[in-house]
Amino acid sequence: MRLRNLKEKETYINNCNYLIKDYKSNIGNWSKIFKNNNPIHLEIGMGKGDFIYNMALKYPNVNFIGIEKYTGVIARAIKKYPEALNNLLIINMDALELLNVFHKEIDTIYLNFSDPWPKERHKKRRLTSEEFLNIYQNIFKGQNHIIMKTDNLGLFASSLVSLSNFGYKFINVNLDLSNSDIPNVLTEYEAKFIKEGIKINYLDAIKR
Ligand SMILES: C[S@@+](CC[C@H](N)C(=O)[O-])C[C@H]1O[C@@H](n2cnc3c(N)ncnc32)[C@H](O)[C@@H]1O
After folding, report:
1. Ligand 1 centroid from CA 103, angstroms
2. Which domain holds residue 128?
3. Does the pLDDT value for residue 54 go beyond 60?
4. Residue 7 — very low, low, confident or very high, per pLDDT cuts 50/70/90?
């Protein structure tokens, strides 16, 4: 699955008809790009795309956008999933840029196996830090809605505290997602962790 060189990565990126390159010019207009008013769900850190692509197949009445900061990683997602779907777009960008890309148009954010940034001095980089929750606040359309999965108990605990302090309420918290009846679509990391017998932590939180 590895891509041999930069040229091969660029070929995948340049020929992908569901990767949006001029993503900053669509702020406020994403429903027009999808040509419908269906809800828009965003995965931050989509990795190699298993979750976002299979979610788009499973829920055709939801529009999905996956973002990923590393070109090499998103190129591998395109290699694995070359066919465009009507309800899926992907963007090669860092979550730090979200305010320049979306304005009050996202219904749900998925954070799947986000980097844990365990050191105290790096805690602002966690995708559930107060800094990121402030960014998300401006891209949500109405009610804020975050669904998170992680193997990492440190990140999970810090996310519960951070979300609660920010005013989120928990609809569901589960410490063993694979053995629950919560509907679930696997990510690449999740499939690997399940094989290793590692339990998956899950939360579903809203802020009105
Ligand atoms: C541990 S991987 C998990 C990938 C995938 N979600 C999964 O569960 O298999 C985290 C991914 O998030 C991406 N990522 C981390 N920080 C990000 C950010 N600030 N903006 C966009 N992507 C980010 C990383 O490049 C990496 O591909």
Report:
1. 22
2. 6-207
3. yes
4. confident
Helices (H) and strands (E) in the chain, counts: 7, 7
- Closest atom, ligand 1, to C-alpha of 43: 6
pTM of the model: 0.97
Residues annotated as catalytic are 115
Q: Kindly give the distance from the C-alpha atom of residue 41 to the centroid of ligand 1, in angstroms, as a whole number.
A: 16
- Three-state SS for 27-45 is CCCHHHHHCCCCCEEEEEC
Q: Confirm whether 147 is domain-assigned.
A: yes
Do the Cβ atoms of 114 and 166 come closer than 8 Å? no
Residue 1 lies in a domain: no
- Nearest to 39, CA basis, from 104, 83, 98, 134: 104
CATH code for position 179: 3.40.50.150
Task: Check whether 2 has a pLDDT greater than 70.
Answer: no
Selection from 200, 116, 199, 196 nearest residue 158 by Cα? 116
- How many domains does one find in the chain? 1
